């Protein structure tokens, strides 16, 4: 069938192939979720109460990279980690193709998103993330345990010093007209050299990671039941970096209730950070080397998370308070909390 079909006819054909491959009947679209990069994400209702989530391969993953996050998803699911159930075809495959486009199918999870204002929810997020890291540490794809996967996301998720420097150089070339902010960025980079030199990188354990650690990629069914979502950016890296990334998001990011913009706090939310770590350390541990490096990892993540949250890594920046936001980042890096 021609992949250039009108979208309505393509979706009809897609649902027919899904019903055939997954032995489902009477499927219909109950919610057309935001498509991203021309990829489809549909919530589907069938003849039974269970709803499905149909998700197309994201545009930045190659066909070779696409199965990696699915294999990891299946592995942690079978290990008992709370995640959205990943469904297999009647032949046992974890994805299927239609008109050269690749799709996965999950059971739709109903729940509350981004519940990070209540301590119990943050505690359960930490617990679930700790369980995930335990299970993911036993995931093996030997030929892919390196820094190159997924290749398209290395720039956007720098998680060691060489990549961080490359990322900052890229941002300078992207925003040559933002002279005041680039001066701030150079000053922050000089501060981070001190923190980076403390880290004994060769002593930090590496394993497979979620890849996009954020409360936005979790859903809650009551305060005690937190599920992880969206493994598209799964990759090989430092476990402690990913823990520090999540702790940093909780510690420095807040949403302006008036305009809806994400903003960087003027001070660390140490209470939320401690709540997450308490849940995490109930089921997992950090080595002595990871603990010694943790303050430095928070400092590095303060900049990386901050840049992402205020959109400075985008070509077009839709806000006028960048200087103020970078001033907050500067202050935060000078006052790293200890745990």
Average pLDDT reading: 91
What is the count of β-strands? 12
CATH topology of the largest domain: Aminoglycoside 3'-phosphotransferase, Chain: A, domain 2
Main β-sheet description: 5 strands, antiparallel
- General shape: globular
State the strand order across the main sheet: 1-2-3-5-4
Any low-confidence stretches, pLDDT <50, length ≥5? none
SSE-based structural type: alpha+beta
Helix proportion range: 40-55%
CATH architecture of the largest domain: Alpha-Beta Complex
Binned strand content: 5-15%
Rg on CA atoms, Å: 21 Å
Q: How are helices and strands ordered from N to C?
A: HEEEHEEEHHHEEEEHEEHHH
Query: Number of folding domains?
Result: 2
CATH superfamily membership of the largest domain, which one?
A: Aminoglycoside phosphotransferase (APH), C-terminal lobe
H/I helix tally: 9
CATH class of the largest domain, please? Alpha Beta
**What distance lies between the first and last C-alpha atoms, to the nearest angstrom?**
58 Å
How would you describe this structure to a colleague?
- The chain folds into 2 domains: 7-107, Phosphorylase Kinase, domain 1 (2-Layer Sandwich), CATH 3.30.200; 114-333, Aminoglycoside 3'-phosphotransferase, Chain: A, domain 2 (Alpha-Beta Complex), CATH 3.90.1200.
- It has helices spanning 7-22, 66-78, 119-136, 161-174, 179-198, 239-252, 270-281, 288-310, 322-333, and strands at residues 28-32, 41-45, 51-56, 96-98, 101-107, 112-113, 206-209, 218-220, 226-228, 235-238, 253-255, 262-264.
- The chain has 9 helices and 12 strands.
- With 339 residues, it is an alpha+beta fold.
- The N and C termini lie far apart (58 Å).
- The strands form 4 sheets. Strands 1-2-3-5-4 form a 5-stranded antiparallel beta sheet, with helices on one face. Strands 6-8-9 form a 3-stranded antiparallel beta sheet, with helices on one face.
- A hairpin with a 6-residue loop joins strand 11 (253-255) and strand 12.
């Amino acid at each position: 069938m021609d992949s250039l079909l009108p979208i309505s006819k393509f979706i009809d054909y897609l649902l027919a192939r899904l019903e055939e491959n997954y032995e489902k009947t009477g499927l219909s679209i109950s919610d057309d979720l935001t498509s991203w990069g021309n990829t489809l994400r549909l919530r589907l209702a069938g003849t039974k109460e269970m709803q499905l989530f149909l998700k197309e391969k994201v545009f930045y993953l190659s066909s070779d990279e696409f199965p990696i996050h699915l294999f990891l998803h299946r592995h942690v699911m079978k290990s008992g980690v709370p995640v959205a159930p990943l469904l297999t075809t009647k032949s046992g495959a974890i994805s299927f193709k239609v008109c050269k486009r690749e799709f996965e199918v999950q059971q739709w999870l109903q729940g509350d998103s981004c519940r990070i204002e209540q301590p119990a929810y943050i505690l359960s997020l930490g617990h679930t993330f700790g369980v995930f890291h335990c299970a993911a540490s036993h995931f093996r794809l030997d030929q892919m345990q390196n820094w190159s996967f997924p290749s398209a996301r290395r720039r956007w998720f720098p998680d060691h010093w060489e990549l961080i420097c490359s990322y900052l150089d890229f941002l300078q070339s992207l925003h040559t007209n933002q002279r005041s902010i680039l001066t701030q960025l150079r000053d922050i980079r000089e501060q981070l050299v001190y923190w980076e030199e403390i880290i004994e990188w060769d002593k930090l354990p590496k394993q497979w990671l979620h890849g996009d650690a954020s409360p936005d990629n979790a859903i809650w069914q009551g305060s005690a039941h937190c599920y992880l979502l969206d493994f598209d950016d799964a990759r090989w890296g430092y476990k402690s970096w990913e823990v520090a990334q999540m702790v940093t998001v909780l510690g420095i990011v807040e949403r302006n209730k008036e305009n809806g913009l994400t903003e960087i706090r003027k001070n660390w939310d140490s209470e939320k950070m401690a709540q997450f770590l308490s849940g995490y350390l109930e089921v997992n541990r950090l080595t002595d080397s990871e603990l010694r490096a943790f303050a430095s990892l928070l400092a590095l993540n303060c900049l990386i998370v901050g840049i992402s949250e205020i959109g400075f890594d985008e070509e077009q920046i839709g806000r006028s308070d960048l200087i103020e936001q970078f001033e907050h980042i500067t202050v935060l890096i000078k006052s790293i909390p200890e745990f």
